[in-house]
């Protein structure tokens, strides 16, 4: 099982957390997503057997709304 963390920017409310969690959870290979928000920023922890590429993760977050991926740590 692999785990990565994504540092995010632009999370202003609980709906932001729900959108990102739902969209990342829909990706193939992702089994668990936890997003924690604090003052416009957030950290998403993604776990699964075969995690998507950084590009797919970044595009998914950006497509979910006005959010930006600051970094991805594998």
Automatic annotation (TrEMBL):
GO molecular function, one term: metal ion binding
Residue ranges of domain HMA in the record: 2-69
Pfam families to which the protein is assigned, alphabetical: HMA (PF00403)
Record Gene3D superfamilies: 3.30.70.100
Protein name as it appears in the record: HMA domain-containing protein
